[in-house]
Amino acid sequence: MAAPRRAIEEQVTPAGNGTTRSKRLPRSLRVTLGTGFVVLAVVAALAIPDVWQRVGAALLSRTETTGAVVLDESFDGDTLNTSIWNTCHWWADHGCTIATNDELEWYLPEQVSVSDGALRLTADRDPTRGSDGREYEYRSGMVTTGPTGSDSEAKVSWTYGTVEARLRVPAGRGIWPALWMLPASGESRPEIDIMEVIGQDPGQNIMHFHPSDRSEESPSKRYRLPGKSFSEGWHTLRLDWLPERLTFFVDGKEVWRVTGDQVPDEPMYLVINLAVGGVYPGPPDETTRFPATFEIDRVRITTAA
């Protein structure tokens, strides 16, 4: 079993080009699911081959928890919206890392870019001295909707609802893209890991739940894409979060459910990052290709109805 990702676990001290994506579903097809939607989908599929896949994904990604929209990012501009996103953890000081896992990357804002309708987090083999005085062999990118400091509030947080992201991950030993959630209070737990993919096995999604009570078990689940890889094409990851229930989806298919009173009932925020090496998943080797880019096409968060 993979070692669980830990966010601030025992560490609150400061530490210190993607491929072209397919076209978006035309706005004329973004209508309420129903008879009209199906008719339009069939017509579009006849004329545009890859639209049918888009329509199918939209049908599969319906959520029972949809309420108010908290965040809907399609990354259509050419700059990161800093009113929503930070480029480091809240304990950041001119960059950051996860020191407790001995990770090999130093996160820097310049490794985060927005272009051609996607957010891109890029890891490079480029030695960098962190503000903690250590030398890091790699630099990489991350974003978070969390606080910017110990006394600040999260930029975007919510309690109960749905988070959905459409993304494509890089492959390669030692590469570790992740989509996860942390409490807006700044504590390290509870933690919900919606997606972790290790580059040496890009066909498998690893999910974890770390409850706030450290005496409780931290369950995990592995889901393997049938005959595919998360680095091949775009895939949609989703979490439905309701009282005493977490439901995880991959491309519209339910793949895991966690229930019980350990399910968080407090505001949480989102983290998206591209880690390199560490105790887990291990370092890159000569087969790992850099730069490696984690692409995110859309992030949508809604509250529970």
Fold and architecture overview:
With 305 residues, the protein is mainly beta. It has a single domain (66-303), classed as Jelly Rolls (Sandwich). Helix content is 8%, strand content 36%. The strands form two sheets. Strands 1, 2, 3, 4, 5, 7, 12, 13, 14 and 16 form a ten-stranded mixed beta sheet that branches. The protein has a six-stranded antiparallel beta sheet with strand order 6-15-8-9-10-11, with no helix packed on it. A hairpin with a 5-residue loop joins strand 4 and strand 5 (135-140). Helix 1 (35-47) runs antiparallel to helix 2. The longest helix has 13 residues, at 35-47. Residues 1-63 have low confidence and may be disordered.
Strand percent estimate:
35-45%
Shape: globular
**How many alpha or pi helices?**
2
- CATH architectural group: Sandwich
Number-wise, the strands total 16
Give the integer mean of the pLDDT values. 84
Helix content: under 10%
**Largest sheet properties:** 10 strands, mixed
Q: What would the CATH topology be?
A: Jelly Rolls
Rg over CA atoms: 19 Å
Question: What is the CA-CA span between the terminal residues?
Answer: 36 Å
What is the chains' assembly state?
single chain
Structural class: mainly beta
Classified by CATH, the class is Mainly Beta
- State the domain count: 1
Query: Which runs of at least 5 residues are low in confidence (pLDDT < 50)?
Result: 1-63
Could you state the order of secondary-structure elements as H and E? HHEEEEEEEEEEEEEEEE
Task: Name some characteristics of this structure.
305 residues; Jelly Rolls; 10-stranded mixed sheet; 6-stranded antiparallel sheet; 36% strand; disordered N terminus
